[in-house]
Amino acid sequence: MADNKLVELQETIYNSKNPTRKYIHNKRKNYITGILNDLAIKYNHALEIGPGSGIYLNLLSKKFDSIIAVDIEEKYLNNIKQSDFTNLDLLIDDIKNTKLKKDSFDFILCTEVLEHITEADIVLKNIESILKPGGFLLLTTPQKYSPLEVCSKIAYLPGIINIIEWIYNEPILDAGHINLKTHGELKEIINDVGFDIISIDKMSLYIPLIAEFTGHSGLKLEQYIEKKIKGTKLDFLLWTQCFLLKKV
How many domains does the chain have? Predict the structure, then answer.
């Protein structure tokens, strides 16, 4: 992905002209913001893995005494204005082979990162290692068989992606999701690593064609169906799975 297109994409999705696209990204953003605001205990040190455009850094900087944001690629960190924060450090680090110290952080945010990295078990073991005992991990990642992920395999094909971009009239880039997990697969890894599961949530239904061509009325239908299937055997269709985890 070209750096400027990546930044443009990250700035677009939360303000998209397409109601469904805007909804599914802001639903996750609001969930994460709510969890952060509800953390009543005073923490000192926080880490965000793969901060993207840095949409959570402002809240993290107010919640914690110090923050570290890490990414494997320096070019992604360069788009964050570190001068806007007095308690933020930006570091290059590969969470699969992290150089961060054991038992260093009270809170770790890892949102929409796991699907970009192979060996999810190693990633979560390393995250557990650098968390302090009693520390929290907030983890979000797409569900493997949600319609959005299934359709994306077709949408990102050469030529088709240009049509999709024309329909949305906004940046559309291959998301690079190489390690999608079902809810069961991810929960098994989490249990094997030894986290306590504090809460689980699933959210955001995307229905192809309805999302692209029916605007706000289509979004209302998607939201209605989302409410009906949430908590049922059909909630594997919801796009995002969210875990709030605690290190024992």
Answer: 1
Name the residue among 151, 137, 219, 230 with its Cα closest to residue 186.
Answer: 137
Which bin fits 81, alpha (ψ -120 to 50), beta or left (φ > 0)?
beta
Q: Is the dihedral of CA 40, 128, 105, 83 positive or negative?
A: negative
57-65, Cβ contacts within 8 angstroms, sequence gap of 24 or more: 57/85, 57/88, 58/84, 58/85, 59/33, 60/36, 60/109, 61/85, 61/86, 61/87, 61/88, 63/36, 63/39, 64/106, 64/107
Domain enclosing residue 195, as ranges = 3-144+175-204+240-246
Instruction: List the structure tokens of 52.
Output: 């993207």
At 179-232, the pLDDT tens digits run: 999 999 999 999 999 999 999 999 999 999 999 999 999 999 999 999 999 999
Residue 191 resides in a domain: yes
Q: What residue spans of the chain are helical by DSSP H?
A: 3-12, 19-38, 57-63, 74-77, 120-130, 147-155, 160-168, 183-193, 210-213, 215-229
Q: What is the rounded end-to-end Cα distance, in angstroms, of the chain?
A: 38
Tell me phi and psi for residue 39, to 5 degrees: -70, 105
| CATH for 27 | 3.40.50.150
- In terms of phi and psi (left: phi > 0; alpha: psi -120 to 50; beta: otherwise), the region of 167 is alpha
Tell whether 120 is covered by a domain.
yes
Question: For the whole prediction, is pTM greater than 0.90?
Answer: yes
Element holding 92 (H helix, E strand): strand 88-92
